[in-house]
Amino acid sequence: TRVVVASRTYADFTPQATFDIKKCDLHKLEEGPPLQAVLTREEGLQYYRTMQVMRRMELKADQLYKQKIIRGFCHLYDGQEACAVGIESGINRTDHLITAYRAHGYTLTRGGTVREIMAELTGRRGGIAKGKGGSMHMYAKHFYGGNGIVGAQVPLGAGVALACKYQGKNELCVCLYGDGAANQGQIFETYNMAALWKLPCIFICENNKYGMGTSVERAAASTDYYKRGDFIPGLRVDGMDILCVREATKFAAEHCRSGKGPILMELQTYRYHGHSMSDPGISYRTREEIQEVRSKSDPISLLKDRMISNNMASVEELKEIDVEVRKEIEDAAQFATTDPEPPLEDLCNHIFSNEPPMEVRGTNPWAKLKSIS
């Protein structure tokens, strides 16, 4: 079959196609994102690859966790890939993003490498936070992390949006939280400030239907999360379709950049794993439910089917991408399991960004550690 692949030239493929996408539900908006999206072959292949890397990376993390190589908190993102990749393709790399602790996918789209992410999960020196952050605390340029306190990243994101407005560079901040955090008081305080100050902030609720083991219906008196900004306009988006997410994000970004203040997006999505690795994920939902989402609305399958049925890529070509991705993940896992752990003397480094070396008290008043910026 290799010969067949080689003989099909790229000229045979459709370079771009237009797809009908699901209409968003609107709150306080006259009109919403377009009902059609243009996808080029290049974009399609890039989205497919990134989502596959994300999916494989999370499955590898699951495996390493079960082998006790990754320990502690670990929240996996598989199932929600269209959200991260869709949002990223609707904003600029100079825009800012902050999320909760299900952060591996965003660390990747914000420029982290698979090696850095995997090594951070195993707590090694080559990790993206030098092995000190672990699963919930990864950072990159214009990416303010993984944050471990439920809902606490939302006011921080509004602070970043305030800085965007203050500096006047026409940048914005995407501020993500889950349905489980949507009832936190600090979120409503932030809505109020953001609306008063017209901050360029896109609040995004990634609604994956369960906050830990509690379904949205049992946790929220109103599950219309996109309307809960009250005085802030909102959109409810199909979070399993990357094109829906991309178009809605572009629409929201345009809203913010034109000085209209904050906007809210609810992405309806689904996580295949449990809340974290300590949750088998099937005590509060059935295996059939998970299987049904996988078979009917998997974000990767959806994109793949679109591309193949519109002659934008061949099955063989996508399989080749899968093989490359698998290899990339294997190499990263190999690095993450062999890279050394950080030495004790690195413990207190980087407390400040630009200060002369200082002494830090250890576990008792006599133990002194050194901190270097």
UniProtKB/TrEMBL annotation:
User: What GO biological process terms are annotated to this protein in UniProt?
Assistant: glucose metabolic process; pyruvate decarboxylation to acetyl-CoA
Q: Name one GO cellular component term.
A: mitochondrial matrix
Molecular function terms in GO for this entry?
metal ion binding; pyruvate dehydrogenase (acetyl-transferring) activity
Q: Alphabetically list the UniProt keywords.
A: Carbohydrate metabolism, Glucose metabolism, Magnesium, Metal-binding, Mitochondrion, Oxidoreductase, Phosphoprotein, Pyruvate, Thiamine pyrophosphate, Transit peptide
Show the coiled coil region(s). none
Task: Look up the record and name the cofactor or cofactors this protein needs.
Answer: thiamine diphosphate; Mg(2+)
State the Gene3D superfamilies in the record: 3.40.50.970
**Record's superkingdom?**
Eukaryota
Q: Recorded E.C. number(s)?
A: 1.2.4.1
Q: Does the keyword Oxidoreductase apply?
A: yes
List the InterPro entries hit by this protein, alphabetically: DH_E1 (IPR001017), PDH_E1_Alpha_Subunit (IPR050642), Pyrv_DH_E1_asu_subgrp-y (IPR017597), THDP-binding (IPR029061)
* Mitochondrion keyword on record: yes
Subcellular location(s) per record: Mitochondrion matrix
- Give the protein's function: The pyruvate dehydrogenase complex catalyzes the overall conversion of pyruvate to acetyl-CoA and CO(2), and thereby links the glycolytic pathway to the tricarboxylic cycle.
Q: What is this protein called?
A: Pyruvate dehydrogenase E1 component subunit alpha
Annotated organism of origin = Electrophorus electricus
